[in-house]
Design goal:
The protein has 334 residues and is of the alpha/beta class. Helices cover 47% and strands 15% of the residues. It binds 1,3-dihydroxyacetonephosphate.
């Protein structure tokens, strides 16, 4: 199965698709998990978890992840996983790109989707930058996610204080999508990046999601900052020597609700780091004589896969793989 004759990325992979293709299938029914990865153990856990739960997914590489070892190493691991798990269907996406990094990914021939994050610029400048990236990406059949509004919190090189953070204005969202030509829009709807999200009983602004979705029917919305920061995970980390005080995330029932309202991509990074932290803290605490990286690495791959399986149930993407495969194949044969 091929994604279409216009395709100019990932010529060697039949199963790497664009985020647009994933969203066409998911819209209004479920959301795809967009999981950030940095190393081999995360890649293996991620693919196992998605295959075990029969879910399509998005593998996200941030600027920081591309620089952590070497972008070529990270990309080679994904190419290898594509061979090891021939049944997987996924998109390869740049998370929070600036213009230069977007062009690097578009020209690499490997990414099927990029995010241009010019949300810190003025409305008109954000549109102008996004439009330039869209024009370059669409020439190669690559999808583009843009961002309007600003999430609070810390996401690698992006730091936004609570005072600077602002929800997406639905009226502006409509104009932004029309003028920029982007394929999906990351909206600020109450979440923030990192392990310290809400104070008190705050949650998602469903009124804002509803308003944006009604102005842009059928248009895929993206929710950043979607980690749930599971309390039991935080407790176990702290019991094994960690000091995560007051960490909290998005309630899972709210994620499920958003996934049927036009949110088709749900970004998760922090939760994966928490699993890594808990596994390693407990492993070295319980076996203080061990200095081998592989015993905790093996536990991590299993635990991360379990986390992904659970999250895909929450998103509704679990069990969608065959139906997606069929619709991609009828679109390719049409
Ligand atoms: P979390 O920090 O909630 O995992 O969000 C990650 C994210 O939005 C990456 O773009």
């Amino acid at each position: 199965m091929r994604a279409g004759s216009e395709r100019t990325f990932n010529r060697d992979s039949a199963m790497i698709v664009t985020t647009k293709q994933l969203f066409d299938h998911a819209y209004g029914k479920y959301a795809c998990g967009a999981y950030n990865i940095n190393n081999a153990e995360q890649v293996m856990g991620l693919f196992h978890g998605n295959i075990n739960s029969q879910a399509p997914f998005i593998i996200q590489l941030s600027k920081g992840a591309r620089a952590y070892t070497d972008k070529r190493l990270l990309e080679a691991m994904i190419r290898a996983a594509d061979e090891i798990f021939p049944d997987a269907i996924f998109a390869v996406h740049l998370d929070h790109g600036d213009e230069e990094t977007c062009y690097d990914c578009i020209d690499s021939g490997f990414y099927s989707s990029v995010m241009i994050d010019a949300s810190h610029e003025s409305f008109d400048e954000n549109i102008a930058i996004t439009r330039r990236v869209v024009d370059r990406a669409h020439e190669k059949g690559i999808s583009v996610e843009a961002e309007l509004g600003m999430l609070g919190g810390v996401e690698e090189h992006v730091v936004v204080s609570e005072e600077e953070a602002c929800l997406t204005n639905p009226e502006e969202a409509e104009e932004f999508v029309t003028r920029s030509g982007c394929d999906s829009l990351a909206c600020a709807i109450g979440t923030s990046h990192g392990a310290y999200k809400f104070s008190g009983s705050q949650g998602l602004h469903f009124d804002v999601i509803e308003d944006i979705a009604s102005r842009l029917p059928g248009f895929p919305l993206v929710m950043h900052g979607s980690s749930s920061v599971p309390p039991d995970e935080v407790e176990r980390i702290n019991a094994a020597g960690g000091a995560l005080k007051g960490a909290s995330g998005v309630q899972e029932d709210q994620i499920t609700r958003a996934s049927t309202m036009g949110v088709t991509k749900v970004n998760i990074d922090t939760d994966g780091r928490l699993v890594w932290c808990r596994v390693h803290r407990e492993a070295f605490r319980d076996d203080p004589e061990n200095f081998d990286l592989r015993p905790p690495g093996k536990i991590f791959m299993v635990e991360y896969a379990k986390y992904i399986e659970h999250k895909n149930q929450v998103l509704g993407s679990a069990g969608q793989l065959e139906s997606l495969r069929e619709s991609l194949s009828s679109a390719a044969n049409a």
